Amino acid sequence: MLGFLKEPVVVTAKINVNLVALTVMGLISRLWGLCYPRAVVFDEVYYGQFVSLYMKRIFFVDDSGPPFGHMLLALGGYLGGFDGNFLWNRIGAEYSMNVPVWSLRLLPALAGALCVPLAYQILVELHFSHCAAVGAALLILLENSLITQSRFMLLESILIFFILLAVLSYLKFYNLQKHSAFSGSWWFWLLLTGVACSCAVGVKYMGLFTYMLLLAIAGLHFWHMIGDQDLSNVEHEPISLFFQVSLLCHFLARGLALIIIPVGMYLSFFYVHLALLYRSGPHDQIMTSAFQASLEGGLARITQGQPLEVAYGSQITLRNVLGKPMQCWLHSHTNTYPIRYENGRGSSHQQQVTCYPFKDVNNWWIVKDPGMQQLVVSNPPRPVRHGHIVQLVHGITTRYLNTHDVAAPLSPHSQEVSCYIDYNISMPAQNLWRVEIVNRESDTDVWKTILSEVRFVHVNTSAVLKASGVIGASLPEWGYRQLEVVGEKLSRGYHQSMVWNVEEHRYGKSQEQKEREVELHSPTQMDISKNLSFMAKFTELQWKILTLKNEDTEHKYSSSALDWITMDTNIAYWLHPTSAAQIHLLGNVATWASANAAAVVYLCLSLWYLLRRRRKVYDIPEDAWQLWVSAGGICGGGWAVNYLPFFLMEKTLFLYHYLPALTFQILLIPVVLQHLGNHLCRSVLLKSMFSALIVAWFSSVYFVYCTFSPVTYGQPALSLTELKALRWKDTWNILLRKQ
Fold it and tell me: What single DSSP character describes residue 313?
C-alpha cells in the first residue's frame, strides 16, 4: 500500500528561460525608482481625484470612460492604506506622507512590465521564430514612451496589457482549435479572451477597437471553419449531422465567451462602482433626482420621507430633467417682464417665470384642481394621473402659471410663460396644463415624486413648458440672469429640456397664505421609498458618460493624430522645482521610425504579392503567405483600428492616445524582418549582411533608449547643454531652466 514511497517523487517542469528573463527585465525597467518623483505627475492630478473619491465612497462621473480602470488605481491606494486625504490641485505638488506613492503606481507599472513577455508570446503564437519574438519583446522593453506611461498612476499601460492579453489568449485558443477543441485549455483561453476584452473596454473605450478586431477575426475564422473539408464529410449523413451539431457548439461557445461574458463583466464593473460609491458628492447634481435620492446624503437627506404620489394640493418643486449645462428649477418672483424689451418688442408685463439654478423658496408650486378652490390635499389624497388637467399655483405669490400668444423675451418664435396678473384688459388667463408622464408604463399611471418624468402641455395653445435657458438663453439684468422658460410648440420637435420631475414634495395642509408660507419653509417628514434598480442606475450613468462632454479647450501639449506618426510632439510630465530634472513622454525615435518603415514595407509587399498571386505567380510558399496575412491582420489591423478612429474624434488629443496603436506597430517590425530574412535574402552573403544590419539597427535602438532615459525616469538631472542636445526636433518642448 505504501509502495509508492519507495521511489522519490519527481516533478519535471519546463521553464522558458527567454520568457523568465524578459519578465524580470520588464519588472526592473518599470519598477526601478517607482516612488520618484514623489510629486504629482501630469494626469495623476486627474486620476488621483477619483482615487480619493473611491477611498471616501463619494459618487462621481468621469466622462472619459468606464470605471474599471479607476477601480484598479483605487485598489492600489486601498492596498497601500490611502485614506483619500490629499488635495489634487496642481501638477508638481509634493505628496504628503499619507499618500502611498509606490502602491498607487504599482498596478500600472506591473501591467507595463508584463507587456514585455506578452509581446514575446504573441509572436511565438503567430508561429514566428523565438529570435523574432525576443526582438519584439526587447523593442517593447526599450520603448521610452511605454516606460514613462507605465511608471505613474495612469491607465494606458493597463489598457495595453489587457489588449495584448486578449490577443494572446485568442491566438492560443485558435492554435488549439484543430487538435484540442473543447478541451480544458481550449475553454480557458477562449474564456480568457472574453474576460480580457471586457477588461480592456472597462479601462477605456479605446479597448473597444481591439475587441471589435478580435470579433471580426473570430467571425472570419468561424466562416472558414464552415467550409473546412477536414471537419466535414457531406458524403456520409451521420458524419454530416455530427458536423452540424459540432458547428453549432462552436458557435454557441464563441457567443458565450466573446459576447455574453464580456457584456456581463462590463455590467459587473458598474455594479461594483455603484456599490462602492454610495455617498453624495459634487458630481451627482448632473444626475436625475431619482439617482441623487438613491445616494446617501445630499438630495436624499432633503427628500427623505416625502410622499410618493403627487396629489391635488401637493406642494412641489420642479427640476428640469436635462440638467446641463446646469441644473435648474421652475421659479417665479414678484418682478414682471418689462413693458418693452431692448429691441422694441413688447411683453405682457406679467410676473416673470424662470428656471433658477439654486434651491429657493420661490421654486415651490402648488398643484391645484381647476374645478376646486382649495390648495390643500384632501383626505384621502386624490392622486394626479397621466392626462389630468391641473393648474400650477406659485406658492409664495399665489399666481397661476400661464402662457399665451405673446413672444418670449429671448426666443421670439416661442410663447412667453408667466404667472398671470389680472390687469383688467383683454388678456384672459390661460392657466390650464395637461400632465403627460413621459416614462409611464400605462395611460393610468400616477404622477410620482422623483420617479416620473413629466411634460406640461398647455391646454389652450398645445405649447409645452420648456426651459430654453438650459440650452443657452439667460435673461438680462431685469431677469437677474436667470434662465428663460418658454412655451414651445411640439411641432418644433421634442427636446429633453421640455421634461420635468418633482424633486421636493409635501402634502399641503394650510389653506391660509401666511400659514402656507411657513409650511413652504419647513422640511417634510413622511414615508417614501425611491430606490432605483441597478439597471436603471446603470442606464442613466452609462448615458451620462457617453453624452456628458466637458468643453474641450486647447491644451499646451495637445496634438493631432498626424503628429503622432513622426513624433513631432512631446508632453512634459514633470519638472523638478529646483533642478533641471524632468520627465517627458517621448518615444524611442529609432523604434518609431522603424515601425513606420515596417508598416510601409508590409503594405507594399502585400500589394505586390496580391498582384502576383492574381497572375498565378506564387513568390512564397502558401504556409508563408498565410503566416504573413495572419500576422498582418493582428499587428497591422491592431495598429489601424487603434489609430485611424482618432481622425473622426472631436476631442482634445494627446500623444499617449497613440500608444496602443504603436504597440501593435512595434510587433510588426520583427514580422517584417523575419520575412525579409527568410524569403528575400536567399544567399549566405545576403543573410550575413542582413544579420549585421539588424545588430547595428538594434544597437541604435538601445543607444536612443539610453540617451533619453534621463527624461524617461527623471534622473539624473541634466545640464542646460545636455538638455539642448536632446532636442532632436524643433517641435519638441524640452524645458530649459537658466541655472
Answer: T
Asked whether the whole model's pTM tops 0.85, one would answer: no
User: Closest Cα partner for 599 from 647, 561, 635?
Assistant: 635
Q: Position 335: which residue type?
A: N
3-state secondary structure of 698: helix
Long-range (24+ apart) CB contacts under 8 A made by 527-535 are 527/305, 528/303, 528/304, 528/305, 528/306, 528/307, 528/308, 528/449, 529/308, 530/290, 530/293, 530/294, 530/303, 530/308, 530/449, 530/450, 530/451, 531/294, 532/290, 532/291, 532/294, 534/271, 534/274
CA dihedral over 327, 330, 333, 336, signed as positive or negative: positive
CATH number for the domain that contains residue 353: 2.80.10.50
Check whether residue 564 and residue 690 sit in a common domain: yes
pLDDT in tens, 519-575: 666 655 443 345 678 998 999 999 988 887 655 566 788 899 999 999 999 999 999
Please name the amino acid found at residue 456.
Answer: F
Other residues' Cβ atoms within 10 Å of the Cβ of residue 129: 14
Residues 254 and 327 in one domain: no
- Interatomic CA distance for residues 436 and 616, integer angstroms: 70
Grid cell locating 276: 462602492
Domain check: are 252 and 103 in the same one?
yes
For cell 495572419, name the residue.
630
Grid coordinates of 698 = 538594434
Q: Which residues pair with 585 in a beta bridge?
A: 571
Distance between CA 473 and CA 496 in Å, rounded? Answer: 15
- 153: containing domain: 28-273+558-726
Residue 402 near residue 429, CB atoms below 8 Å? yes
d(CA 575, CA 736): 10
Domain final position from 482, 507, 532 = 507
Quick check: is 636 in a domain?
A: yes
pLDDT digits (tens, 9 = 90+) for 29-85: 999 999 999 999 999 999 999 999 999 999 999 888 899 999 999 999 999 999 999
Q: Based on the domain organization, do 233 and 340 belong to the same domain? A: no
Domain count, the chain: 2
Give ∠ CA 536-541-543 in degrees, rounded to 5: 95
Strand, helix or coil at 349?
coil
Name the residue among 540, 595, 543 with its Cα closest to residue 567: 595
